[in-house]
């Protein structure tokens, strides 16, 4: 079996990031995902993605995926939580949801790190 090309690796990375972002956003108490500096710079690469794949770049801001040579997948998710939700419980739920989503997408159990980078001071609306 040959190693994936750089383009195939990027497509896999984005596909995993999309699964992780979708799962994290679905968790009650997550207000939004927050990109870091690298994530902001990667948003500029969206045009290249669209040219290469013919489809819009998925909204993966706030997620970073590393595909290591040993086959492991590492996912970093940066979340903003609601003030009226228990932050630790939200983080745990995001970890569980992202782990399950990435495993379903890849067949591999990822290493997942969830970072709460902000607490939104506006209470959630029911």
From TrEMBL:
One Pfam family in the UniProt entry: Asp23
Source domain of life: Bacteria
InterPro entries, per database record: Asp23
Family statement: Belongs to the asp23 family.
Name of this protein: Asp23/Gls24 family envelope stress response protein
């Amino acid at each position: 079996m040959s190693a994936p090309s750089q383009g195939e690796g990027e497509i896999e990375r984005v596909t995993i990031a999309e699964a992780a972002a979708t799962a994290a956003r679905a968790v009650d108490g997550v207000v939004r995902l927050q990109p870091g500096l690298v994530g902001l710079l990667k948003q500029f690469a969206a045009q290249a993605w669209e040219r290469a794949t013919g489809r819009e770049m998925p909204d993966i801001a706030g997620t970073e995926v590393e595909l290591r040579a040993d086959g492991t997948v590492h996912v970093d998710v940066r979340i903003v939580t609601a003030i009226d939700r228990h932050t630790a419980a939200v983080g745990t739920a995001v970890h569980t949801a992202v782990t399950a989503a990435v495993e379903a997408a890849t067949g591999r159990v990822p290493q997942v790190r969830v970072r709460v980078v902000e607490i939104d001071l506006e209470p959630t609306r029911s």
